[in-house]
């Protein structure tokens, strides 16, 4: 095995895998938690699942004709000779766990939220990584169009809570098991009459919808008059979609209909959507999801419908930066302690412990650094308050409490440090 050697024989991260180090890591965590919080507000319970699964879960669940399964999975044989795959997406694993633990035997819909890393062996580029993070929700066991609207609105609210405004919500309906076969035949007949190359013909045979997503301008030109699912919905599918739109209208969730939307995974039915951020360049998909009404039965469970989304955390971080948003606390701490000398260091340890116990975020300098250097650290920590403790202060039983925003400072009795700090932080 060749290690990923960098300069001086050090080892680098694998290709296409982002590291988040301070201070950007704070933004990453704040973005992720803000997205999760939106789902929490709508009654989704957390679910924690393994990052590797039996390979069959994805070939059966996500679909063999999708790029994700056919070209991008990290699949390996484990020591017990089993075929294992690092999860490329979250929905199939959630479905597996719901079936395995009988969650679908209780009250419906089952509403779950997850976050974590996913893995796809794609060609790395800006916003496209081989390990990326998603926050996802899944709602299983209800056909109510109000549930479709809820899932979409939770995504919208999640981005709004970050402060994002520059994205667009695209929506369509991909029909159900009643209207899809007829449409598929219609589309296949249309494609059969086109002068397509062999590989594209083969794609048209396996999954004709995917041909609509062909990026080549010459192919796109031929597809201008292709029949669209949205124009071929059954009355039932059409009514469902209309009701979803009506609720989104009432919720003031803006959207555009994109009847040519093609999602990368095969399980989608009926309501399907994507959040697109034009400032993200080629990888503009901020998040996406939809209904997957046949998935649970496909995986051996009850024939329950479901709907959910996956929001890309990495791309949301990029979108927030592109919109100039600062997300989450940038400060490492609220209070920074600067002791001068050994005795002061010991006393500051006690003060810091007390303040932390009161829920205040405290850091401090170590190792007898000079006052100037230590105060610089206080500044760069982002703290609002500095506590300077010298020998003279110790003798007098006081600490110098400095408001780093206003520059005001005054000696405060040791017993009153906590209230003095709290007053500045509250101001
Ligand atoms: P997906 O559209 O494949 O859907 O992925 C969702 C989001 O994950 C994308 O919109 C994008 O933001 C992010 N993403 C995907 N691949 C990468 C990558 N290589 N690098 C960075 N970000 C990426 C799903 O995965 C479905 N499981 C969503 C879902 C849940 N549908 C129903 N329920």
TrEMBL record:
Family according to the record: Belongs to the class-II aminoacyl-tRNA synthetase family.
UniProt keyword Ligase present: yes
Alphabetized NCBIfam families for the sequence: hisS (TIGR00442)
Enzyme class: ligase
Organism, as annotated: Nakamurella panacisegetis
Binding site for L-histidine: 89-91, 120, 134, 138, 263, 267-268
The encoding gene: hisS
This enzyme's EC code(s): 6.1.1.21
InterPro entries: aa-tRNA-synth_II, aa-tRNA-synth_II/BPL/LPL, Anticodon-bd, Anticodon-bd_dom_sf, His-tRNA-ligase, HisRS-like_core, HisRS/HisZ, HisRS_anticodon
Keyword tags: Aminoacyl-tRNA synthetase, ATP-binding, Cytoplasm, Ligase, Nucleotide-binding, Protein biosynthesis
GO molecular function: ATP binding; histidine-tRNA ligase activity
Pfam families recorded: HGTP_anticodon (PF03129), tRNA-synt_His (PF13393)
Keyword Transferase: no
This protein's name: Histidine--tRNA ligase
Subunit-structure text: Homodimer.
Reactions it catalyzes: tRNA(His) + L-histidine + ATP = L-histidyl-tRNA(His) + AMP + diphosphate + H(+)
Protein location: Cytoplasm
Cross-referenced CDD domains: HisRS-like_core, HisRS_anticodon
Gene3D superfamilies: Anticodon-binding domain, Bira Bifunctional Protein, Domain 2
